[in-house]
Amino acid sequence: MFDSDPADGNPFGELFLRRCAIKMGRPAKLQMSSVQRAMDALREKNLVWRADWGEYVLEDESMADWHQGRSRRPPE
Asked: 46 lies in which domain range?
């Protein structure tokens, strides 16, 4: 759903925060604290893991294919 900034791969960068807000129909950019809480929730559910500060990776790469419509079935 949300790609990180191509320049730095950081989901907390300005461009990413603005693009997320637009996709969510919000008038202003998202706050970093909101994104951090969301990323922490995804980590708790073992959907992503933090490779480094500001760098998150999907636990199951097939989830990206499913989310981007390249697969009709969600990963098991």
From this structure: 14-67
